[in-house]
Design brief:
The protein is built from eleven helices and 17 strands. By secondary structure, it is α+β, with helices and mostly antiparallel strands. The radius of gyration is 24 Å and the shape is elongated.
Length: about 400
């Protein structure tokens, strides 16, 4: 069954569920909690978040002795994004996603709003999951940046820069998989617009447009009059226009504008060029027998090729192994399809430099015109991208 058909079926089922249960649900939600580590009187405020605006709906005065609070959101007929702020911490907030009738319980650390616990709200817990992961990535990047600033070794700087790129790529993979797992949740809207730094979005490649379309489709179908449906629809039109104005290659960050040739020996010692596969959709797959994550990804790729049997698609597998026996044994054990080549260079494989491989597994998606159109795409996002190219 095609993705579009599956998505439409899920939307229909969700719409029916929402319609049949709306009379049973209470048209309000509550948020109860405590603010810990508070040393002075302050004000706690609740905001309703629309697509491009945020409006204060209620405030509570809290003190170290009377630090509990309760907010009641009335007339809640659909999943609602809200946020809690403490006076004097305007740049910090706790984002919540509340369903009609939910009773959320939250414990807040007044000194650090990112340290909180929440129960009773599934959507809010999803948002905590994605925001916590982003916070971890930001801390990693900041730490690496500090090391870069004090390092005087070009070799060390290059390694640190590779680690930064790997951290960003890992965050992209996490966000993509989260969205595919929760395509109809407004938590995925938060994931779509997360930023690693000001004006530097996690999902900033042209291939990410499909993720925006999937989430927007559910919002438009379920809540057509919401600011999120209208806002995302406008954003997607702008993205499409931007891609039309600039070639797709210029929209894919950290991807080379021209496709470097790879000419390496296969297991028999015969040289196989990457360019020899031109005319097919190519998954350029970097892996190693000693890397468990890439072995797991290879299984996913094998399943994808089996599903697309007979289609003009091929995997060009570049191993970073330095021991031929281990390399060949891994191929035979996993029965990994496609072309297999390896440089067998333990010190400094040239292909790593050519394609800026900073992590394993790593991949590039190459279309029939021999142009790179995506980098480090996994799971359902990879499957859909490949199917669109065939």
């Amino acid at each position: 069954m095609k993705l579009k058909t599956i998505l439409n079926s899920l939307i229909l089922i969700s719409a029916i569920a929402i319609t049949t249960s709306s009379c049973k649900q209470k048209p309000y939600s509550t948020i109860e909690g405590k603010v810990e580590t508070l040393d002075t009187k302050t004000t706690l405020s609740l905001y309703i978040r629309e697509f491009s605006t945020s409006n204060k709906v209620e405030s509570k005065e809290i003190t170290p002795k009377k630090n509990s609070f309760k907010f009641k959101l009335k007339n809640i007929l659909e999943p609602t994004l809200a946020s809690i702020k403490i006076d004097g911490q305007n740049s910090n907030e706790i984002i919540l996603l509340l369903e009609p009738g939910e009773k959320a319980q939250i414990s807040i650390n007044a000194n650090n709003l990112s340290h909180y616990s929440i129960e009773g709200s599934t959507g809010s817990m999803l948002i905590k999951e994605i925001n916590s992961r982003l916070l971890t990535t930001k801390k990693t990047l900041d730490s690496l940046d500090n090391l870069l600033q004090v390092s005087s070794s070009n070799e060390v700087k290059q390694k640190l820069a590779q680690e930064q790129r790997a951290a960003v790529d890992s965050q992209r993979v996490f966000s993509s998989r989260f969205i595919w797992a929760n395509p109809m949740s407004r938590a995925s809207i938060i994931a779509l617009y997360q930023q690693i730094a000001p004006n530097r979005y996690v999902l900033d490649q042209s291939s990410d447009l499909h993720l925006f379309k999937v989430v927007a489709s559910s919002q438009i179908a379920l809540y057509p009059n919401s600011s999120y449906a209208k806002g995302m629809e406008a954003d997607i039109k702008e993205m499409i226009q931007r891609i039309k104005n600039y070639q797709i290659q210029s929209m894919v960050k950290d991807v080379e504008q021209s496709l470097p040739e790879i000419a390496l020996p296969n297991t028999n010692g015969d040289i196989v060029k990457l360019s020899s596969l031109k005319g097919k959709v190519i998954i350029l797959n970097f892996w190693a027998s000693w890397n468990q994550s890439s072995l797991f990804e290879n299984k996913e790729l094998s399943n994808l090729i089996a599903e697309l049997k007979g289609k003009p698609i091929v995997i060009y597998n570049v191993s970073l192994d330095f021991d031929k026996k281990s390399w060949v044994a891994a191929i035979e054990t996993t029965k990994m399809p496609g072309v297999h080549v390896c440089e067998l260079n333990a010190k400094d494989p040239m292909v790593v430099q050519l394609y800026n491989v900073a992590q394993l597994p790593a991949n590039y998606i190459i279309d029939k015109n021999f142009d790179i159109i995506g980098k480090n795409v996994y799971g359902d996002a990879l499957k859909q991208m490949v199917k669109d190219l065939l």
